[in-house]
Amino acid sequence: MGSRDERHRHNLVPLAALLSREMKSEKMEKPTLRYGYAAQSRKGEDYFMVKTDCQRIQGNPSSTFSVFAILDGHNGNAAAIYSKDHLLNHVLGALPRGLGRDEWLQALPRALVAGFVKTDKEFQSRGETSGTTVTFVIVDRWTVTVASVGDSRCILDTQGSAVSVLTVDHRLEENVEERERVTASGGEVGRLSIVGGAEVGPLRCWPGGLCLSRSIGDMDVGEFIVPIPYVKQVKLSSVGGRLIIASDGIWDALSSEMAAKSCRGLPAELAARQVVKEALRTRGLKDDTTCIVVDIIPPDNSIQPFRPPKKQNKFRALLFRKRSHNGANKLSKKLSAVGIVEELFEEGSAMLAERLGDEFSSKSTSGLLICAVCQVGLAPSEGISVHAGSIFSMSSKPWQGPFLCADCRDKKDAMEGKRPSGVKVA
Ligand SMILES: [Zn+2]
After folding, report:
1. In terms of Cα–Cα distance, which of 128, 113, 134 is closest to 415?
2. Do residues 191 and 200 touch, judged by C-beta distance below 8 A?
3. 422/407 Cα distance (integer angstroms)
4. What is the pLDDT of residues 142-172, one digit of tens each?
5. What is the CA(375)–ligand 1 centre distance, in A?
6. What is the per-residue pLDDT for 1?
7. Rounded Cα–Cα distance for residues 187 and 424 (Å)
8. How much distance in Å is there from the Cα of 379 to the middle of ligand 1?
9. How far, in Å, from the CA of 202 to the mean position of ligand 1?
10. Helix, strand or coil for residue 224?
11. Domains and CATH numbers, the chain
12. PPM-type phosphatase domain: which residues (predicted)?
């Protein structure tokens, strides 16, 4: 039990230490956020969300962070609307209380996974069909955390660096890994066949015929279409950067590079409109087309719009640099000084156990066990470790948390293709 005690001690940061850390980060200059959005509707299934007044600590304006999201619905708009209304609360509900900024940011990737799965589970329990992509972006000062299912991409354009993609496209057509996962979980991947046996259109997954391998909702497709998001967290350098978040109406018409270039030099509001205009010019209005542009602007040039990079820098090859475990802060400062975006976290596994890890604090403030996904309290006999009975059980710890309630355990099995086909919990 030594390791458990250690873990427990590690979770408790003395208040004084927390405050002093907070004060230090207060002294670092805060970037200014500017954003704009634009949309052209064809089916009325694209939704977006902008919330710039969220607070990590209620009533403390210096703990403010912003959320931007694009939700591209299919087979109806119910899943997109439900996710827009509930996902943020589900993510925040999965974050332990009383964390300082750094701890909070570290806990975010796990909370995003729990929040996505909970939203999916609760939407499905309403018995409505339809599904949605979600690209959910949290901006806390210089740190950008993106969680996504589906194919609504988020890109980052930084001065002097190449354009980088902060999401992966969960499209069966383009994602070999996801194709393999779906097939291994019992799904069939193929194209629509028309009379005469000719195959048409993109790769789809059967049952259901969805082109995406991950989404929220979609209770009428195979359960291997999972809501577990790809998550990436980066820290921008002090030159800031521009995020472009958009539905596939944009990305089917423009490459990431083209979208970034088309709006450089314009302020965020005009930039979003320009990206949509450019996509329509290239391809016409074939689909709902929605775009959010977010500029993260250093304090000393907060009035100027995001400027295009000057001449291509020969030494820009190193865009992302993984955080090393030793001396992370020192490294971070150095990277920031040379304008390099630091990658803090990246994980795309579709396996819930891998995503919830084993350092999760599985006790509520009252000391009760809670479900790591839906946050309900568990009776001592009720919690099932996320690691129990897994194929990795040789190396995992079935007696340790995080724990899941029976419902969430059931959902986990279904997502891994372990539930007998045809049996579905509505
Ligand atoms: Zn649960």
Report:
1. 113
2. yes
3. 17
4. 999 999 999 999 999 997 678 999 999 999 9
5. 6
6. 38
7. 15
8. 12
9. 35
10. coil
11. 32-170+212-350 (3.60.40.10), 354-426 (no CATH)
12. 27-296
